[in-house]
Specification:
The complex is a heterodimer of chains A (280) and B (259). With 280 residues, chain A is an alpha/beta fold. Chain A is 42% helix and 22% strand. In chain A, helix 4 crosses helix 5, helix 4 packs parallel to helix 6 and helix 5 packs across helix 6. The model of chain A has no long low-confidence stretch (mean pLDDT 90). Chain B folds into two domains: 150 residues, no CATH class; 70 residues. Chain B is globular and about 70 Å long. Chain B has a two-stranded antiparallel sheet with strand order 1-2. At the A-B interface, helix 2, helix 3 and helix 4 of A face helix 1, helix 6, helix 7 and helix 8 of B.
Chain lengths: 280, 259
């Protein structure tokens, strides 16, 4: 069942340039979906359609099988269901303290103070930021800010979490903490949509991958299917995961028998290598 | 990067967990007492006591605190000099012999009183600024029924000051690495570029944050989520004793002049 669906949406900037060209995007409930694409391909623009910030020029957007109606009441409903974590946490964190920032969303939903307090506590614990309640955002590191931004969305208890480049600008440890968190949230049933150009981490988590280039979806499928089409990937200014690239070189240059599909993760590659060297 | 600012001390001093209402009341009442005094004794005593609290209780490094005090000190000192020369009548105490200028007795006394009040009042303010994080002040403003819109704007300003400080610093360094400040002409040009660029960025960032807030169901007003604490009886007693002690001091030194 699709929890988010866009049907042929087109979006034009006020000056007439087309940012999205008849995009069909589907996210199945309870899955992790990745949107891969180079800079400026329209990833963020597409995301802003998911919660009704942008209205498509033509086509429609369905959230939880209901079409967004762009009136105040319906937008509230949609924005509670679809939480967006923005790429730059500084754009998102506006309040003078972590506590107030995380409480902002749930307070807007009109919940009681006790309920908000509970949700804030829960959300901060979830992202491992308990004890930072009274800190102002400018005293936090990049990874910490990101986690607070995620907590701010979690506290609204959305069904779908949309993250724009969740690992950009983070150190490897910070990035892997965020990914682990997303993985766990997904296990508990949350649908997660991430945009990224980090091809190495996509096959680890994503159930379905979309490739967007110049406002058009040019490829979709599971990671195996998508990365098989090496030409499309490279034409979209992306590359194969490092592991797959290594296997490709081993096959082509050194004539080792690692044929397609190339393994995309370390685990898959390990299995393949073990099988190969067992026979030697 | 902001290790040495007022803000970081306000967040990491030893008195930051003391009840906020108590601190505000303490600073404010003491400031009032300093203002009603007609002799310089009590305001100077207050300056001394507040400085003691700031350095030894709140553990603010004394170097930072002294630096913090220099600006009001010079301001107060200048006021003192001007008042000594231009106010008051009567027999001159001291005549430098130019332009018929003279320091008179009541001019000197008045100048010194104003100076001591400035220092007394300012040390109270410094106590508040150095021990109380700004975000907690916002809840006080709210209790005082300040218009919501003012508080919201102040909150956003407080948050974004630091972002733009960082942005401006980055731009400044990048200009500097390209010799942007090599000559006076270049300096003016670079500063102009920096200012205009910062303005445009402010605009863009504002737009971005608005989108981010809208995504979290923002409807035009930031609903406050703050804990309100009560002052303990013990603290109120201490406060009352301290202020009455100061008031007694004012009564005893009423009209006292140094000359």
């Amino acid at each position: 069942m699709n929890i988010i669906e866009t049907n042929n949406i087109t979006y034009r900037y006020p000056d007439g340039t087309e940012a999205l060209k008849t995009v069909n995007f589907e996210a199945e409930e309870g899955k992790i979906v990745a949107l891969l694409g180079p800079n400026g391909a329209g990833k963020s623009t597409l995301f802003l359609h998911f919660n009704g910030i942008l209205r498509p020029y033509s086509g429609n957007v369905l959230v939880d099988r209901e079409e967004i109606k762009y009136n105040k009441k319906d937008l509230m409903r949609v924005r509670q269901k679809v939480g967006i974590v923005f790429q730059n946490p500084d754009d998102q964190l506006f309040a003078p303290t972590v506590l107030e920032d995380v409480a902002f969303g749930p307070m807007n939903l009109g919940l009681s103070k006790e309920e908000v307090e509970m949700r804030v506590k829960e959300a901060l614990e979830r992202v491992g930021m308990e004890g930072f309640e009274k800190k102002p955002p400018h005293h936090l590191s990049g990874g910490q800010k990101k986690r607070v931004a995620i907590a701010g969305i979690l506290a609204m208890k959305p069904k779908i979490m949309v993250l724009d480049e969740p690992t950009s600008g983070l150190d490897p440890k910070g990035a892997s903490q965020i990914l682990k968190l997303l993985y766990n949230l997904n296990k508990e049933g949350m649908t997660i949509i991430i945009s990224t150009h980090d091809v190495d981490l996509v096959p680890l988590y994503a159930y379905k991958v979309y490739i967007i280039s110049e406002g058009e979806i040019i490829k979709e499928g599971n990671p195996q299917e998508v990365f098989e089409d090496v030409k499309t990937i490279r034409d979209a200014n992306l590359r194969l995961p490092r592991i797959a690239h290594l296997m490709e070189i081993l096959q082509k240059e050194d004539e080792l028998p690692f044929d397609r599909p190339y393994p995309l993760t370390i685990g898959e590659a390990r299995r393949k290598l073990k099988d190969h060297f067992k026979d030697v | 990067m902001f290790e040495n600012t007022l803000d970081s001390y306000a967040h990491s001093n030893n008195l930051k967990n003391v009840n906020i209402n108590f601190k505000v009341l303490f600073a404010f009442l003491t400031m009032l007492v300093s203002l009603i005094s007609t002799s310089p004794v009590i305001p100077l005593l207050i300056t001394f006591l507040m400085s003691f609290l700031i350095i030894f209780k709140a553990k603010i490094p004394w170097k930072f605190y002294l630096k913090f005090l220099t600006i009001p000190f010079f301001f107060g000192f200048l006021t003192f000099i001007f008042m000594a020369f231009f106010f008051g009548t009567g027999a001159p105490l001291f005549e430098p012999g130019i332009f018929n200028l003279a320091v008179t007795e009541d001019g000197f006394n008045l100048g010194f009183l104003v100076f001591s009040r400035i220092m007394g009042g300012f040390s109270c303010l410094a106590f508040l600024a150095l021990t109380t994080p700004m975000n907690e002040m916002f809840s006080i403003f709210e209790n005082l029924k300040m218009p919501k819109i003012v508080i919201e704007i102040a909150m956003l300003m407080y948050r974004y000051i630091f972002l733009f400080l960082e942005e401006a610093e980055n731009m400044y360094y990048s200009q500097k690495t390209r010799m942007g400040y090599g000559s006076i002409k270049n300096t003016f040009k670079s500063l102009g570029l920096l200012a205009s660029n910062l303005f445009i960025r402010t605009w863009l960032k504002g737009e971005q944050s608005y989108i981010a807030m809208e995504s979290r169901c923002y409807d035009g007003s930031i609903k406050s989520f703050k804990a309100h604490e009560k002052i303990s009886v013990k603290n109120i007693t201490i406060l009352l004793f301290f202020e009455s002690f100061l008031l007694l001091g004012i009564y005893l030194t009423w009209g006292f002049k140094i000359i």
